[in-house]
TrEMBL record:
GO function term, MF aspect, one: telomerase inhibitor activity
GO term, biological process aspect, one: regulation of telomere maintenance via telomerase
Native source organism of the sequence: Eudyptes sclateri
Protection of telomeres protein 1 C-terminal insertion domain boundaries: 75-218
Superkingdom in the source lineage: Eukaryota
Name recorded for this polypeptide: Protection of telomeres protein 1
A GO cellular-component term linked to this record: nuclear telomere cap complex
Length: 244
């Protein structure tokens, strides 16, 4: 795995880190005194790498404002879901021309009200593996159960006039085990009824990019970032890895 490979690189006295066989080796001191961009071949030792834990290398990147942010953990999402469950689903928003709604009350002490809205296509419900649904009042555990069976899940809450997305600290869409986030700075969330235009397509694919676009969300991309410090006795150079 990558982590043990990085440790081995640190233990070796010299490691070839780039592979431009047609170039001669250049000392780091020379590179540090040169203007970018240029291409070099180096022989150097890996002194340190960050982050030490590989899962910390995964960040969320906005290509519009170029911001980077940490991936929220499940506890943050659970907290937002609990907060949204305080507002009971608005029955006036149920069973519209483009989605069917089911509502029930949990049997526990809290007696939460949960509503699930199944988006229709040609006035018919699709197969579960092709279905987009919206859930109000669900817990994290309930949301994950739905993602195992249905193609897309969007957590929502009721207003007086329409369903709306939760705080953008939460994922606006879940597909399988992937959570999709929107940029708080660049997004201008639209009412959920904007999705009806996708439902009206000949074959709704429910692609995250299309869903984000119609909902006014600037989609954040998962990126892999690491920082390496390389040394060769003449100087130290920081190298950054950034990849989607």
């Amino acid at each position: 795995d990558l982590e043990s490979h990085l440790r081995r690189c640190q233990q070796l006295s010299v490691t070839v880190l780039t592979d431009h066989q047609d170039l001669n080796n250049t000392e780091l001191k020379t590179i540090l005194n040169s203007t970018a961009p240029q291409q070099y071949r180096i022989r150097a030792k890996l002194r340190t790498y960050k982050p030490q834990k590989l899962y910390q290398s995964i960040k969320l990147h906005c290509s519009k404002c170029n911001s980077l942010q940490e991936v929220p953990d499940g506890d943050d999402f659970d907290f937002i879901l609990q907060g949204s469950a305080v507002t009971a689903p608005n029955p006036e928003l149920h069973n519209t021309s483009w989605y069917d709604s089911v509502m029930w009350t949990t049997q526990d002490q809290k007696q939460r009200k949960i509503a699930i809205h199944f988006v229709k296509h040609d006035e018919m419900l699709q197969q579960p593996e092709d279905t987009l649904l919206m859930i109000e009042g669900g817990t994290l555990k309930e949301v994950w159960k739905l993602t195992k069976r249905f193609k897309c899940v969007i957590p929502v809450r009721s207003t007086e006039d329409d369903l709306e997305l939760l705080d953008l600290s939460a994922p606006f869409l879940l597909q399988g085990n992937i959570k999709y986030y929107g940029c708080k700075q660049c997004s201008t969330p639209k009412p959920i009824k904007s999705l009806s235009s996708v439902a009206a397509e000949q074959r709704p694919s429910w692609e995250p990019t299309e869903i984000a676009q119609v909902l006014g969300i600037e989609l954040l991309q998962y990126v892999f970032i690491m920082k390496f410090t390389l040394v060769d006795g003449t100087g130290a150079l920081n190298a950054y890895l950034f990849d989607y």
